[in-house]
Amino acid sequence: MADETTQGKSAVAVKPKERFKRKLMGDVTSDKMDKTVVVEVVRYSRDPVYKKYVRTRAHYKAHDEQNTCKTGDRVEIEESRPMSREKRWKVVRVVKRAVID
Questions:
Q1: What pLDDT digit, counting tens, does each position of 74-94 carry?
Q2: Helices marked H in the chain
């Protein structure tokens, strides 16, 4: 009976297709929380009426597992599952370290 249900089906597990995750680049503005950093992402968009480039800023809370990021670092963040109420991004890599005087 058990052979009847498994006939014609392969035993190889099919991995579901991984969905596209957005990646953004920004500067760390705060590292005071444990395993969390606040990243400021700056975008420039053109105003449709005045044809002038306008700077828009957005702040994202990102997960930093090893607490390696410091204020002023340039980091790349990637979209992930919700980890808390406001944290939906994680730090992929530190692009450039901040210069500490």
A1: 999 999 999 999 999 999 999
A2: 2-6
